[in-house]
């Protein structure tokens, strides 16, 4: 009669040892472990600079709604604000202001600019983006409709309160 009890105790001890040894065995690295370690070590590009301007500070510099155009704010965070430009319910463009303190490379592209919009250095990025640098702030208009041209983007950049934004510096 003691034999079945001893077998239960022995199986419980063996099961415990098995669980303990498998739980303490180091696992082989997974296929994403190296990428996770590398991204965890990176310091640049992960956070917004502490001295970046709050996104809600930018809203007052966006163009006012006019003649059938609607401005709909879509994102606001430290160092960035964005709004959609709509007409007749259709997205025409994305308007944004960003603080380049967190991304110094963003301001570098303006150093060789020969074009100006509103008195500020301007660049065209591809066929859909136009941007100006106002101090440390980048004002960008991104076409969302093929009918919204580079001249439309430049006109909308000029509708921003660029002088007010320059004083925010």
From TrEMBL:
Biased composition (Polar residues): 34-50
Signal peptide span: 1-28
Region (Disordered): 30-50
Key words, A-Z: Signal
Tree of life domain: Bacteria
Stated name of the protein: Lipoprotein
Species of the source: Anabaena subtropica FACHB-260
């Amino acid at each position: 009669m003691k034999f079945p009890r001893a077998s239960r105790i022995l199986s419980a001890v063996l099961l415990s040892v098995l669980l303990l040894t498998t739980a303490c065995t180091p696992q082989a690295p997974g296929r994403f472990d190296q990428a996770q370690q590398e991204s965890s070590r990176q310091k640049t590009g992960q956070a917004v600079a502490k001295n970046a301007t709050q996104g809600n500070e930018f809203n007052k510099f966006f163009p006012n709604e006019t003649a059938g155009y609607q401005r709909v704010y879509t994102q606001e965070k430290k160092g960035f604000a964005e709004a959609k430009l709509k007409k007749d319910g259709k997205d025409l463009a994305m308007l944004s202001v960003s603080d380049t303190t967190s991304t110094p490379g963003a301001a570098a592209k303006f150093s060789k600019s020969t074009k100006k919009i509103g008195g500020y250095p301007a660049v065209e990025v591809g066929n859909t983006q136009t941007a100006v640098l106002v101090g440390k702030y980048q004002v960008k208009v991104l076409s969302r409709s093929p009918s919204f041209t580079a001249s439309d983007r430049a006109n909308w950049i000029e509708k921003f309160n660029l002088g007010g934004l320059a004083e925010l510096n």
